[in-house]
Amino acid sequence: MSINSDFKKTNSSGASITMQHYIFAFVQDVVNQPDNLKRSEQWLKEYCEKENVNYFELNRQLSSFFELLEAYRKTKTLVLYRFLQLQAQACFIDEERFALLRIQPANYEFPRIAADMGTSCSDKNTITSSHNGGLVGGHLIGL
Amino acid sequence: MNNAEILTMVVSALMWQKHNGSIKLYTDKAGYAFIRSRKLLALWNGGIDTELLENNNYPIDPEIFWAAGKLIALEAQACPCVMLDTDLIVTLPIQHLLEPTGITALHSETLQPEVYLPPSLLKKPSGFSFPDDYNWNTLPSNTAFLYIRDKSFKSFYLNESKRFMFWNMEKPTEMVSQMVFAEQRLLSICADRQHLPITYLLSDPFSLLNSSVIHLWGFKNLLRQNENIHTIYSKQLIEKFEDELSLYSVFTTYVEKYILCK
Asked: What phi and psi, each to the nearest 5 degrees, are found at residue B199?
């Protein structure tokens, strides 16, 4: 038996490079200039129609992205940063463009973590059964 | 438990069966009813036991010692055995790692003083005292995974733990320190007292060298707070395991019914 995964098929036809540029610009606008949101949304809708991309699905993914961004800004934990990166991909924003969004990095020292640590631990002193963010082996499922 | 936590439990039980042998669940009637409502009774090929916990009358406060059920189940289980939390997935065969050891736990923990209180601050039953030869510098062990080979050590550890938990009813200001002492710190102290080494599956819980363990641990709190995180986590878990578990209808049915239909 196989699973008919909706996770894989939404908007899987992809978006053109132009479309990806526009989505990125849209996200950048929302992040930096939320006042222009209405106008940007209208343009995004028009782009989607022109490119035959499912606007409602894209909008849903973008809403999740912005909600996650809000949650991330409150905690700045590495695990939420990873979730944000993954959600960006669902919005056709690759790692390179994600970096250009200049979202403040998580509260940890990147080089040490990258070499030695996995998901969501900023400090050896937090390796106890009380801390909140810890997902052990998150890298095994891409987190 | 939310759907992502249940999905983790499903993957945990099936991956253990697939790679490491049979698995049995100890729960109470409420747990059994919940599992039945989710049509997951077939998940544990070693069966489900509700009698042990339902009939147990140990004088233990379940609010303070919320994980005591694990220790009661461990007491009933013959050695050698593994105690596996439902939020922990072992992704590979590990018998070869366990066989040469007497005790294997998931990883050590740091002695963070707010979590692992000094003996003077722990609440104790009336007339109780700690043995003089307890080594309080021993690092606690995370027991989300615990393998014990010999009955003699298991009995020693559980007797010490029960001695601390029985009639220990004074409520602390938080509900972590008493339990983690009785379960995790005492394990290490007892092993040290018997000069038995504890082996760990992970030298560091967050090491990228870890190729065999996924543990929700404190991440459960984030899963419960944020629907987007819940969705992304579930998606990643399904993508990782759907090929390997596609022949288990309990997995595919659960995913179709409770995760994808949302």
From this structure: -95, 145
